[in-house]
Amino acid sequence: MTPDDDEFGFILESMITMPLKGIVYPPSIYSLFNKNSYKENNSIVSILDGQPADYNPAVKYGHTNESLDAVVNGLEVQPSDDIIGVCGSGDQAFAMLENAKSVVVVDNNEYQVDYAKERASMLKAGDIESFLNLGAKKYGNKITDGNDVRLYFSQPGRLERIRANIGNLEIKYAKDFLDEMKEGRFSKAYLSNILGYYGFMENKEEREAYIEKIMARLREPGLVYITNGATAFVSCPPGIENADELTAIARAEEKEKGLLKWSPAVLRRAA
Ligand SMILES: C[S@@+](CC[C@H](N)C(=O)[O-])C[C@H]1O[C@@H](n2cnc3c(N)ncnc32)[C@H](O)[C@@H]1O
Prior knowledge:
By secondary structure, the chain is an alpha/beta fold. 38% of the residues lie in helices and 11% in strands. The structure holds S-adenosylmethionine.
């Protein structure tokens, strides 16, 4: 697997938001970036992936910048699945909850955790309008007509199914994803683009070791979804392979519906 042209989203995020290594910027500089850079008409959305670990200003993701169809279909979410994922806006958690047995999402930004919890409460209370529009109202995250997220959740029956399963969603703070991964508890993992997030695990060896640990703790069928797959994960460690058909599905969905056109990878245990 090599980086390809589809990885526009990752490159764009990196260029705009990645702080130069070793430089600690004053918060005022970050606040220049921290404007939830949006372009109308389905182009650039909130992009602030590049922050030092101790910089944690607020909610950065009012909505996902990924295709929810890519995540749900790439992971082949099934009623037997217990899924662990990265929280962010919570959109991916809600989407996976439609068909999964249970979903646990974690975030090391407590503001995102509170935000996603607030949205879950709105959905639980049946306040669909607020659930869909909280990001726009509270944090200025605009939602355009082309936004996959609103269209996604507006499919007939979808929010009702998610709401019916809301008791099986857990949203929590965790310093790192792996801390929550009790062996055998989960069947699938959604990593989003945490590999490479503000320099987290920049080298191939560290990433491979991280993926190996995640895979080792998953029960069958053991799928791992990596949003920035093409750039973050260029080779598989022993015992792990690219689930080519699922990766192809996820990439096709991203190309069609994703806002930043990520190039995801889905990994599984080697046959
Ligand atoms: C990886 S970012 C990317 C957002 C994503 N592209 C989307 O559309 O939602 C999602 C969240 O992951 C959190 N995060 C980053 N690295 C993490 C880690 N190692 N463990 C837990 N959460 C992490 C960030 O705080 C952020 O809220």
